[in-house]
Amino acid sequence: MTAKKQPKSDPRRPAWKEFRAFCNMLAGDPVLMPLKDGVLDWDSVTRDTLTKISHWSDIEIDDMPRLAILTDSFARFIGKGEDASVVTAWRDGTPEIRQIDGEPCIRAVDLIAEAIADDVSLEEMLGLPFAEPFDAPKEPPSKMRADLDALAEKFEARNTPVAANDNLPADERLLPYLAAYGGPNAIITAGALFGAVVDGVAGQIRIMDDGRALFASRLASRYITLPVKPKRLTATRFSLRSSTAIPQREWLHAAHYMRRFLTVTVGAGGGGKSAHAVTEALAMVTGRPLLDPYGPLTKPLRVWLINAEDPADEIERRVTAAAIHFGINAEAIGDRLFTDSGRDQEFVIMRQEGRDTKVCEPMIADMLDAIRQNQIDVVVLDPFVSSHEVPENDNSLIQRVAKAWLRVADEGNCSVELIHHVTKGNFEVTADSARGGGALKDKARSVRTINPMTKEEAERAGLDDPHGYFRIDFGKANMVARTSSSEWRRFEPVSLGNGKGLLSAGDSIGVVEPWCWPTRDAIAERAAAERSTLISDVPAETLAGLKTRLSAGGYKASAQASSWAGKLVAEFFDIDLTIKSEKRRVKEMLAAWIDAGELEIVQLQDAYRRVTPHVKPVAAPPV
Prior knowledge:
Blueprint: H1 12-25, E1 29-32, E2 35-36, E3 39-40, E4 51-52, E5 67-72, H2 75-78, E6 85-89, E7 96-101, H3 106-118, H4 122-126, H5 141-158, E8 164-165, H6 175-181, E9 182-189, E10 192-198, E11 201-207, E12 213-217, E13 222-226, E14 251-253, E15 257-258, E16 262-267, H7 273-286, E17 303-307, H8 312-326, H9 330-333, E18 337-341, E19 350-353, E20 356-359, H10 361-373, E21 378-382, H11 395-412, E22 415-420, H12 439-443, E23 446-452, H13 455-461, E24 469-477, E25 487-495, E26 508-514, H14 520-535, H15 540-552, H16 565-573, H17 580-595, E27 599-605, E28 611-617
Parallel strand pairs: 16-22, 16-23, 17-18, 17-21, 21-22
Antiparallel strand pairs: 1-4, 1-5, 2-3, 5-6, 6-7, 8-20, 9-10, 10-11, 11-12, 12-13, 14-15, 19-20, 23-24, 24-25, 25-26, 27-28
Helix pairs in contact: 7-8, 10-11, 14-17, 15-16, 16-17
């Protein structure tokens, strides 16, 4: 509009000066509100109905009651409300504050009210650098975000973590902040409090050169100066409410993976840990019950599979072989699976140089950025030992490593699974068998163990060879009631068909698939069939002679008896009972004849007048 000339004593000048300071305090633009019947028309207020002004000469004296401030892009302050627009009406008395545009953001309105009540600027209240005055050239939101990121880098560069000697005490100035703002996984290291939670946002607290405690959060891209004396520790009164109102635990997969928790799978080298992780990752990204034939279809998850030892092409071979075996195509996987090798990138979360240890903050920050950017639900790291450089048997250091990984799960809002080796030796693997200090097991919410099938188990299952079969047990599952026993798996070779020429068939990859323990009836039927083959070639006259001797003598059914019937069978067929497998064959032959109805076990008195089980020929039916 065209302004009319006014005398130097124009009242617009002093009012404008005061109003401009108010705009700077609220980091907003000066606007004129629409009127209806002489009053502010809030019902019709939108960004389009507001009139932007830049100088006192743009208004008339009658326009002064219409002055208001438009503040938007609240993500620069609180990490959300990017599209929120809040108008503060300039008038006598208490200013009127309302959000007029964007997704509802109560915090944005409260922020304006707090700044007015405390008579401080938004930047000063939040510990941010002061913005340019409202009448300076405005930058687009993308540039403002870039400036915040640059400021974050400057903050981190100024406070780069250095190695902290374990013999030196922690910065005592951070201890009160640990009590007041420390999250469940908070830790003081390298001169900072990591895992702090302020207003529901996770971040870190550092003591600045001027003594201020500054809270920084990469998630919210904001900085807050905390009170010199943090809030005191208080007891929170418990209020019993309906159980249906309690948020449900966020189980992600297999009653093992849970959002914001650390889990561990423990097993011997070559026992199937890595191959099992590949099949499990495919089950999660496809939502198909690949390892539970009777399980339901689930929501597909986004999984980051990290093998810190094998090269990228080996990871590709394993994933491709499993996809071929289970009939999974690229469309079923979509963009939900991420794979990386420790040979291409470092995933070391803690280092040690001599007696000095430090958490690798840049790696954690990069990992959290990747998790948030790709909306990762589950991170699988294989093996745990490659993620740190501290002595495994030092429980205090392993606890710090576990805390750092738990922090990734917490701040990344994902599940972190660590695959861990066991100490050497032939023994039953339990949660306590994990290599190194037990702090990792204690910090994990769920610990699974992997054990190969034993020869005795293979015999009970009717298998010739236990190789390639293994079972999974829950060594620690303190958030779920486990009623089932072991879950069994087996390797199935899959050819990739990537050979060159006629003499090379290509790579054969072992893929883990589910295996169900046979029922008792199935085992009995298989055993009977196998036993029958042992006696199928025995001549009738030989069996008749054996039955005559059994009928005439007192041969017992117990293999521990001196007159065991098996000794007579061994004599007939020239079998060496000192060999364990041969003795087993004799037992199976006797069982086969009993199954066939040729022999039976009867209770008879022996020479000492004790009634014991004896083996006798089945009596011929009466004619």
